[in-house]
Structures are given as C-alpha cells and as structure tokens.
Amino acid sequence: MKKWGVILIIGIAVVIFVQVIVLAVLLYSDEPIFASSSSVVVVDINDVIMDSKPVLDRLELYTDRDDVKAIVLRMETPGGSVAASQELSSAVRRLRKKNVTVVTSVGNLGASGGYYIASQCDAIVVNPGSLVGSIGVVMEHFEISELTEKLGIKMEAIASGDMKTAGSISRPMRPDERKMLEELIADAFGQFRGAVLEGRSSAIAAAAGLSTDDTVAIGMALDAVADGRILTGQQAVRAGLADELGDLTDAIRVAGELAGIKDPNIIHDKPEEPWEQLSDIFGMAKIFSGRSPLSIIPPSGLWYIYR
User: Do 81 and 49 form a contact (C-beta atoms < 8 A)?
Assistant: First the structure.
C-alpha cells in the first residue's frame, strides 16, 4: 500500500508539472503548441475599433508563418474611427499580397468601419440576420450656448485662424464652418466608397447582373445601398456586399477552400485567455472569461460607425 501511495503522489506531481509547463508556454508564447503544415487562424475584431494596434499585433504574428494559409476575421463590431479602420484594411491587403487568404465572418454586427475592413477580404460570410453595411461617415456635434448663457457662463477661445474653433460647443456653427466640415465628411466618405468599389466591384456587378466593365452602373448599384443604411446578412448577399450565408464554421470552410486546404488545422487566436486554452487541454475550470462591453465613444473625430 505504501508503494502505491508513493506512485500516486509521483503521478500527481508529474501531472501538475506538465500543466505548469504548458501554462508557461501559453502565457509567454504566441506560437501554437501543435501546428500542421496548413492552418486557418481565427482572429477576433470586437467592440468599437478605436485603436488598431491590438489586432495588428495579432495579425503580425501570423504574417510570415509558413503553416498559416488563411485567416478568418471574426467580427462583432459597429465600426470605429476612420484611421483605425483604414489601418486594419491595409493590413488585410498586405496579407493577401503575401498569398494569405483572408475571410470575414460576421456574427451579430459587422458594420461601417468593420465593413470597410471586410470589403478588402477575399470573401465575406454572414448570418442571415447579421447586421452589415452602414457605409457612411459621421461627426457628431453639440452646442450649449443657450445653456451656458442661462448659467451665466461665458466661454472664450483665442485661436490662430478662423477655422481653428470650428465645431466649438460654445456657440452656433457658422455657415463657412459647416461647409468645411461637410467637405471633410464627403472626402472621408469618398475614401470609404472607393475602398468598397475596389474590393467588392465584381461581387456587386454579379449581384446586379452587370458587366464588370460597366463601372458607372456598378457605382450606381453601390450608391443605392451606400447611404448609411444597415442591411441584414441576407440583404447584403443580394446586394453583393457579402458572398455567402453561414456561420463561423462555414467561414473557416470557405477560407480553407480558397487557400486550397483540404483538412486545415484551426487555430483560435486567444491573446488574453491562456487559462481558457489550458482548460481546453486539461479540462480545468475556466478561471477568466467574458468580453468587455462596447467602448464609450468620444463626441469628436471622424467615425465609420453604426449607432
């Protein structure tokens, strides 16, 4: 009995030692423990996109990996700031130039800045009830001069030019200021529209029964749904803004097919949940879980966002 007790203690010690080693690898390494020669990586884009760096850092890990043939961007986002959305769309284009297939999978919401990114992918897979589109730009402004007057508060600004205080909350907006801001919005919208045309022109043409050479008609077909409106996934497929109805599993399948992979190894990128990965391996209870709520959006700036 004493002998079996010693064996049991040694066995438990070995299991604990292995778990500690695996946990250390998960905590301090972004490389998967087991990788095949052909992998599809799922990277999440969640919440409001205010800073592109966290997602860019995750994508960078897989850019030059020989085993990674495709990446699926799993979206749950209403969009975000113009520049951050553009930086992520540029990252997608760089991946595709390196022969990495990129597919977007929209869960509940993949709108505005999220759609800007998706439009540069090889394919977009949406659920029938996903919310997609919202192609447009918004800059919100509020003015409190009447309130401050009632409170006896006076706000003044010393500026270097007439347009430096455009959009100030302390006074009504002048016509020339409004015109300048409207031109700003129009320019940012033109960038959005141009990106969608670049990425989705053939799909829009096919959906509308147009020749791919008829750029004017394709532009008109896009304009019919590029007025800021939101579409269901089913409507988006009919309009050529998405390619296929399906869930995340379907998106992984599409990514594998486009990348020429028959039986891909699937890597779910989880940068902040190493304990959950350990749970997947050893069946341990999940220690940390949950996602952050949507970020609070400041009123200033240009936004590709669905409200």
Answer: yes
- Asked whether the predicted pLDDT for residue 274 surpasses 60, the reply is no
Which has the higher per-residue pLDDT, 243 or 306?
243
Rg (C-alpha) for the chain, rounded Å, is: 25
All residues at 6 or more sequence positions from 262 whose CB lies less than 8 Å from its CB, including other chains: 256
Looking at the DSSP assignment, which residues form a beta bridge with residue 268?
Answer: 42
How far apart (Å, rounded) are the C-alpha atoms in residues 45 and 116? 13
Domain 35-156+169-305 has CATH 3.40.50.2000: no
What Cα–Cα distance (Å) separates residue 49 from each residue in 75, 89, 114, 280, 303? Answer: 11, 12, 8, 29, 10
Q: For position 191, what pLDDT does the model report?
A: 97
Question: Which of helix, strand or coil describes residue 109?
Answer: strand
The residue extents of the domains of the chain are 35-156+169-305
Helix (H, G, I), strand (E, B) or coil at 22: helix
> Is the Cβ–Cβ distance between 128 and 234 less than 8 Å?
yes
| Residues annotated catalytic, as ranges | 112, 164
Most confidently predicted of 30-44, 136-150, 240-254: 240-254
| Mean pLDDT, residues 117-141 taken together | 95
Lowest mean pLDDT among 28-32, 58-62, 225-229, 296-300: 28-32
